[in-house]
TrEMBL record:
Keywords: ATP-binding, Cytoplasm, DNA damage, DNA excision, DNA repair, DNA-binding, Excision nuclease, Nucleotide-binding, Repeat. It is found in: Cytoplasm. Its main location: cytoplasm. This is UvrABC system protein A. Belongs to the ABC transporter superfamily. UvrA family.
Amino acid sequence: MAPRTKTPQPPAPHAADSHDLIRVHGARENNLKDVSIELPKRRLTVFTGVSGSGKSSLVFATIAAESQRLINETYSAFVQGFMPTQARPDVDVLDGLTTAIIVDQQRMGSDPRSTVGTATDANAMLRILFSRLGKPHIGPPGAFAFNVPSVTASGAITVERGNKKAVKATFSRTGGMCPRCEGRGTVSDIDLTQLYDDSKSIAEGAFTIPGWKSDSWWTVRIYAESGFLDPNKPIAKFTKREMQDFLYKEPTKVKVEGSTLTFEGLIPKIQKSFLSKDREAMQPHIREFVDRAVTFATCPECEGTRLTEGARSSKIKKISIADACLMEIRDLAEWVRGLDEPSVAPLLEALQQTLDSFVEIGLGYLALDRPSGTLSGGEAQRVKMIRHLGSSLTDVTYVFDEPTIGLHPHDIQRMNDLLLRLRDKGNTVLVVEHKPEAIAIADHVVDLGPGAGTAGGTVCFEGTLEGLRASGTVTGRHLDDRAVLKDEVRKPTGALEIRGATAHNLQDVDVDIPLGVLTVITGVAGSGKSSLVHGSIPAGENVIAVDQSPIKGSRRSNPATYTGLLEPIRKAFAKANGVKPALFSANSEGACPTCNGAGVIFTDLGVMASVSSPCEDCEGKRFQASVLDYHLGGRDISEVLAMSVTEAEEFFGPGEAALPAAHKILDRLVDVGLGYLSLGQPLTTLSGGERQRLKLATHMGDKGGGGQVVVLDEPTTGLHLADVEQLLGLLDRLVDSGKSVIVIEHHQAVMAHADWIIDLGPGAGHDGGKIVFEGTPADLVAARSTLTGEHLAEYVGE
């Protein structure tokens, strides 16, 4: 008889397999209120909630920040000295973390030499390819790089080896940088008539440059007393020699009133002081001067390719590296696929994979020579994703900040597939998102709220999408919101004519944008919407573009200083207490002397993380103790700056502290959905959508009135479903006040609410750039002739 066998018991789970959750306990970063939560690993978790509810504080400022800090601590102290330092987030326990890769919407650097190719390493691979296969052979990869100048040197260097001395006399390096434009592709030409009035002498104040007064030391006096020219002679009567020195002289030391100063020609001085700076960082009056005085033209020597003639002469199959970078990436991918060269097979494979990733992620319409500073936030985020798509890493936490921004409904499905692919490789994917189409693919949903700012910071719901629908939270209630088409649309009062627009991929577009109505410009990503609006609408004093670019300012700038709100508040405090207004500014006389009005003291610990701790003297209030003895309506200035916009609106309304000037500004901030921001919150902590809405609030106070054209670039960015309705009301109010509103937008609710829609397409890149529809939303839905029409019809249930 066969012996009896025992049924094998299933093995006890291995201890290593028990770590399948990311545990967060007692998170208090920003507005989080002791949040404790457990997130499943190797799943896709979507974080929802109204703007300002604490999503980014939990995902980015707590989970991702701690993961990155712990990884940085594994490096040697020497290496850590070169890395950005991070303080530990305010949380009791963080357990089960994995390596976090953050893919955010920060715009890529605005360096004029940074392109899509240099930002993704595609250029580096192309340079190696051309240095190996290009005919004629012109040199190593650096010879094809527009960031590398050619260098030749002759002379002698002495190398001491033993008793002998070896002398080398010459050195040369071939670079690909065009010497005329220095690898920028454009050259600047300065209009001299905008710099000075040549009928006047320097002593009479000939200069018309902002800040150059006739008695200012550092500029005009040097020209007047340099000895190179006659300060009392009109500039038009300068000799040839004087004019040459005046405009182009090399930096030369001169004595002026006993001091040694540097005299330099006007043109190089202007180039250094104005043209080397980022245009967006300039003050408005300086920017206006630069726009007036400087014209940028395509470099005549390299024809805008940024490369030397040698780099352009070397070709593979009749294509130079300049031609390759000008191609749309999907066409370049096909060209690379056709190259059969066993000697560079691994290189071709890696390049092919990178280019295919562009196409797969919906960026096949870009070209490698596109400046990275011109990409939108959504495009920049997708470009950063490219290096992770083919990665073999697993068990990584990928953190995304609204990856559907800038995507047409048609493209959102593709993005969803990519997120699911990352998850299916065994990674944890955390996504902050508002779009219902993106929330729909979540394995796990975390809803924060219930409100924004101090009214948020708690977890209202955790579970499945169906559970969220039935939960009764703000997100749950608005998940199935659908805007309806308007019964009647407004009649235009005129038209903004665009003729023969050819910017980027536009194909000789003629279009009339109606004025006095709400116009929505839409189309798939890369169809030419921004080129049409930002590149073709004639810029005049009546056109205001409100975008999401960062607001330049330090951590001392806040909504109160940016909107001009602080001015009436300081004056009201000063009047009520009979003292100077300057006392109520943390950047002026009222500042706490210990922390200089910053509210925190930063301690640099060398290679360790810098520590910021609240100033002990002012307890983070930023003001001297004596200033806090002065009150207005029972509150001191630090308590007013700690208020949210909504609280302050009530405080400065009718009553003891009534202040109409401040109330008007606060009303506008509430109108644009920023009621949850605190007045003293640093501008550096705002998201792209918040920055745009803050700029919009300031422009709403402009005296432009009727006839003003307001251009908005995706104002629904970062807006919760519940806030979109408020935004539509705001757009209506802008139009009803006599302004014309042009909105670049993909959100179907805004399209449905428009008076007029202009749809670009039919595809992206060279497949786009045409007007495929003009008319009312109802006509677009009825025709269903474009991708937008199909998606809008589906959205409104037609």
